[in-house]
Structures are given as C-alpha cells and as structure tokens.
C-alpha cells in the first residue's frame, strides 16, 4: 500500500491502558487499498482528503468522499476499501485504551460511523505531525494526542447532531431520543411508543428495522454502558449506581451486568476492564 506510517509501542505512552496511539499516518491514492479487521482491537478514525471509498461495518455500508470522517469502534469488523476509479487520500489514526469508548459514549458517537462534510482536516494534520515529531516527554505526547482526539470527536458529534436536527425525526428516532433522555428515570416501551405515535408492537418493529434491536434491549444496553462509565470514573457504590439507573434492585442489576460483561460490577471496577456490554 502507498502509505506513510507512524507507529508506537504501548510503553511510549505513560498509561497505555487508558490511551495510546498504535498507528497514524497518511494513505495516498491506491486503487488496490483494502482493509479487513475482524473484531478490531482499535478505534479507527479517518478523514478523507480526496477521492472516495467504501466502508462496511455493523451491517451498514456507506461511501465516504472528500471532506468526510468515518469512525470505526473497537470490537466490530472493519471492512473498507478505496474506490478503484477514484481512490482516496486519507489522514487517519488507530488508537486504543479505555478513553476511546468512553469518549464515543459521552459524545453519543458509539453508533455513528459516518459524518459527512466534517471540517476537521487541520486537526488530523496536527495529530499526524505531532506523532511524526513527538515531544520527548511521554506525558506531553499523551496529553496532546488525547486533546486532539477529544476535539475531533467533539466536532464530529456537533456535525452529526446538526445533521440529525436538520431532518425531521421519524418515529423510531423520537422513541430513541426519549429513551436516551430517560436513562436515569423510569420509562417503559409504552412511553416510547406514545412519543413515537405508534403502538408498542409497531414501535418494536420500526425501531428494530432502524437500529437493529428492540427498544427495551436498546434501553438496557445504554443503561449498562452508563453503569460501566460510572464504575470506571466514580466511587459510587454499586447499589447507588443500580438505583440511579432504575434497576429494581442491586441483585438484578448485578445479574444483568454479569450476563453482558462476564464480570460482576465489583470485579469490573477492581480489574479495570473496559469492554462495553455486548
């Protein structure tokens, strides 16, 4: 492949379990360019400078063009390739650590894979230049790379939100927005159906078609993702986290948490595990 690659070993960063840059660089136009990762261990962010390509992830496909950003989270299969007639040039980064899914969750980008017309090229260029000539101090390298990642995701989230608000939300989107607002409040599928203007069965069908899971499964997953974030970033007791996220009791919460993560909440916090619920 025709690329400029900049790589680091994890020990170049002071806290690689939290954040480190595995690879970054530039891909130059090459009609043969193709990547296929199964259950990727990295968060991949890419900005298309020119040309176009094709991406498949989580059962969805899209064709990013010049000016677009795409985000490929950890744990999913990443498949993407250059358009053979108009191969892309890209700036990109592959990053790891618990900070990455936490930021995606905080900015509600965990299921956003394509952000068209996102003006972040200078930030990607600064990221690549920084890694090409890194400061000697490991903490300074980590801090500056993390801040650039944070700003890129913040701008991508704002662009995605603006695009979403520009189009009238459909019933599934209205239900999803209600569920997102009610993570820490009692809510039922019936409440979401009322917000969507549908019956509960109709909502379940259209919601599954739009987002790939039923409304209750979505709500449960989002609450467990929030529980993971609280376990990682606060000292709140498990009982309090269960209460705040509207689980009926601590035992029920712990059972569901173990089913989804393979660990009890206390083990998750103690062992510093950062995988999100499946």
Outline the structure in words:
The chain is of the alpha+beta class. The chain has 2 domains: 3-165, Sandwich (Jelly Rolls), CATH 2.60.120; 171-271, Arc Repressor Mutant, subunit A, CATH 1.10.10. 45% of the residues lie in helices and 19% in strands. The protein has helices at residues 99-106, 121-132, 138-166, 171-181, 189-196, 200-211, 215-233, 238-244, 250-261, 265-271; strands at residues 3-7, 20-27, 34-37, 43-50, 53-57, 60-62, 69-72, 78-82, 89-96, 114-115. The strands form 2 sheets. The protein has a 6-stranded antiparallel sheet with strand order 1-2-9-4-7-10. It has a 4-stranded antiparallel sheet with strand order 3-8-5-6, with no helix packed on it. Strand 5 and strand 6 (60-62) form a beta hairpin. Helix 2 runs antiparallel to helix 3 (138-166), helix 4 (171-181) crosses helix 6 and helix 5 (189-196) packs across helix 6 (200-211). It is globular, with a radius of gyration of 20 Å. The two termini are 34 Å apart. 31% of the residues are buried. The mean pLDDT is 92.
Distance between the termini: 34 Å
Strand residue content: 15-25%
CATH topology of the largest domain: Jelly Rolls
Question: Secondary-structure element sequence?
Answer: EEEEEEEEEHEHHHHHHHHH
CATH homologous superfamily annotation of the largest domain: Regulatory protein AraC
Question: If you average the pLDDT, what whole number results?
Answer: 92
- Percentage of residues in helical conformation: 40-55%
Q: How many strand segments? A: 10
Coarse shape: globular
How many discrete structural domains? 2
Q: What is the CATH architecture descriptor of the largest domain?
A: Sandwich
Q: Major sheet: order of its strands?
A: 1-2-9-4-7-10
Per CATH, the class of the largest domain reads Mainly Beta
Output the structural class.
alpha+beta
Total of DSSP H or I helical runs spanning 4+ residues: 10
Largest sheet: 6 strands, antiparallel
Uncertain residue ranges: none
Rounded radius of gyration (Å): 20 Å
């Amino acid at each position: 492949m025709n690329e400029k690659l900049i790589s680091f070993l994890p020990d170049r960063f002071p806290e690689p379990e939290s954040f480190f840059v595995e690879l970054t660089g530039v891909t130059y136009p090459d009609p043969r360019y193709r990547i296929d990762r199964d259950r990727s261990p990295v968060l991949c962010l890419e900005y298309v400078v020119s040309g176009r390509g094709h991406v498949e992830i989580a059962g969805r496909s899209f064709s990013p063009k010049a000016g677009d950003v795409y985000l490929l989270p950890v744990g999913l299969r990443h498949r993407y390739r250059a358009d053979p007639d108009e191969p892309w040039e890209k700036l990109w980064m592959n990053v790891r650590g618990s900070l990455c899914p936490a930021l995606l969750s905080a900015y509600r980008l965990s299921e956003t894979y394509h952000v068209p017309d996102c003006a972040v090229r200078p930030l990607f260029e600064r990221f690549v230049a920084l890694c090409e000539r890194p400061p000697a101090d490991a903490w300074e390298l980590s801090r500056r790379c993390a801040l650039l990642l944070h700003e890129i995701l913040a701008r991508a989230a704002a662009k995605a939100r603006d695009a979403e608000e520009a189009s009238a939300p459909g019933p599934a989107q209205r239900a999803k927005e209600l569920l997102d607002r009610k993570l820490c409040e009692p809510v039922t599928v019936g409440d979401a159906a009322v917000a969507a203007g549908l019956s509960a069965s109709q909502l379940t069908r259209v919601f599954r078609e739009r987002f790939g899971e039923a409304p209750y499964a979505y709500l449960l997953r989002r609450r467990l993702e929030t529980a993971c974030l609280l376990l990682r970033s606060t000292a709140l007791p498990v009982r309090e986290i269960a209460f705040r996220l509207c689980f009926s009791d601590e035992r029920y919460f712990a059972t569901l948490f173990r089913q989804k993560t393979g660990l009890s909440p206390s083990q998750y916090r103690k062992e510093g595990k950062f995988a999100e619920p499946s």
